[in-house]
C-alpha cells in the first residue's frame, strides 16, 4: 500500500443529505401554536414546517393533542389554528400542503365522544389517531377500538413502541394484531431518542411487518435535530421499502 492509498483510506465518507422524500406525508406532529405541548408560537410553527419541507415532504397532517385533563381542544380550535398557520405560510412563501386532524387520548371522555356521535377529526376519510398513557394499559382499550369500528372509524395507534405495558403484554399485543389495529411508529424511536427498549420494540414491529404508518411526532427543533441522524440507523433503508399508508394520504 502506498502512502497516498493510506490517506485515502483514512478519509471519512461524506454523510448523505437527510431526506424524507420517500415518506411523502408526515401524519403525526404538533405544529399548531399554543394549543398543546408542541409549537409555542406562530413563528415556531412556520420555522418547523419550513424545515420539514426541506426534508422533501409534500404534505403534513398535523395532529394536536385532545386530552380531557390537559388539552381540551375541539375541532373548532384546531381549525382556527390551522387557518392561522396556513396564512402565515402563505405570507412567508412556503408552499406545502398542510392539514390538521388530532391525536386523541384514550379515556372515558373519548369513549363518550364516540358513543354520542360527536365529530372526530380524521386523517383521510375514517382514520383516527389515538394514544394512551405510557405506563399503564387502559382497561377499555379493546372495547373502545370496537366502538370506533362500529361507528365507522379506523383506529391508528400512535407510537405503540413507546408503551411500556405493551412491550411486556404479549397477549394484548397479539389481540391488537388480530384486530388489525393500524400501528404508527415514530421515526425518532429508531434513533434511540426515547430509550433503547423503545428502539428495540420499534425494530421488532418493523421486522414483524406490523407497521402501517410512520410519523415525525415533531414538537420542536430538538426533535428535528435528532431526526437528522435517522439515516445512520441500520433500519433507515428498510423502512423506505415498507408499504406504508403515508403515501396514500
From TrEMBL:
Its EC number is 3.1.3.48. SUPFAM superfamilies: PHP domain-like. It is an enzyme of class 3 (hydrolase). Pfam families: CpsB_CapC. InterPro entries: Caps_polysacc_synth_CpsB/CapC, Pol/histidinol_Pase-like. Keywords: Hydrolase. It catalyses: O-phospho-L-tyrosyl-[protein] + H2O = L-tyrosyl-[protein] + phosphate. Belongs to the metallo-dependent hydrolases superfamily. CpsB/CapC family. PANTHER family: TYROSINE-PROTEIN PHOSPHATASE YWQE. This is protein-tyrosine-phosphatase. It comes from Shivajiella indica. The lineage of its organism: Bacteria, Pseudomonadati, Bacteroidota, Cytophagia, Cytophagales.
Amino acid at each position: 500500500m502506498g502512502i497516498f492509498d493510506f490517506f485515502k483510506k483514512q478519509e471519512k465518507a461524506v454523510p448523505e443529505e437527510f431526506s424524507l422524500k420517500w415518506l411523502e406525508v408526515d401524519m403525526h406532529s404538533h405544529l399548531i401554536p399554543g394549543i398543546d405541548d408542541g409549537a409555542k408560537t406562530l413563528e415556531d410553527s412556520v420555522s418547523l414546517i419550513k424545515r420539514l419541507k426541506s426534508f422533501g415532504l409534500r404534505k403534513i397532517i398535523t395532529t394536536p393533542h385532545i386530552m380531557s385533563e390537559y388539552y381540551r381542544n375541539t375541532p373548532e380550535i384546531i381549525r382556527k389554528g390551522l387557518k392561522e398557520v396556513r396564512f402565515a405560510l402563505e405570507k412567508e412563501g412556503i408552499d406545502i400542503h398542510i392539514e390538521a386532524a388530532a391525536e386523541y387520548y384514550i379515556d372515558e371522555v373519548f369513549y363518550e365522544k364516540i358513543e354520542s356521535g360527536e365529530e372526530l377529526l380524521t386523517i383521510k376519510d375514517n382514520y383516527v389517531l389515538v394514544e394512551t398513557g405510557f405506563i399503564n394499559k387502559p382497561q377499555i382499550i379493546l372495547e373502545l377500538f370496537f366502538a370506533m369500528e362500529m361507528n365507522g372509524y379506523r383506529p391508528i395507534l400512535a407510537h405503540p413502541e413507546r408503551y411500556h405495558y405493551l412491550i411486556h403484554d404479549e397477549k394484548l399485543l397479539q389481540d391488537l394484531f388480530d384486530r388489525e389495529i393500524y400501528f404508527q411508529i415514530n421515526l425518532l424511536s429508531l434513533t434511540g431518542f426515547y430509550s433503547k427498549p423503545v428502539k428495540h420494540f420499534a425494530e421488532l414491529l418493523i421486522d414483524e411487518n406490523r407497521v402501517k404508518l410512520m410519523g415525525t411526532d415533531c414538537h420542536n427543533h430538538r426533535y428535528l435535530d435528532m431526526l437528522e441522524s435517522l439515516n445512520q440507523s441500520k433500519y433507515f433503508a428498510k423502512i423506505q421499502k415498507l408499504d406504508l399508508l403515508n403515501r396514500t394520504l
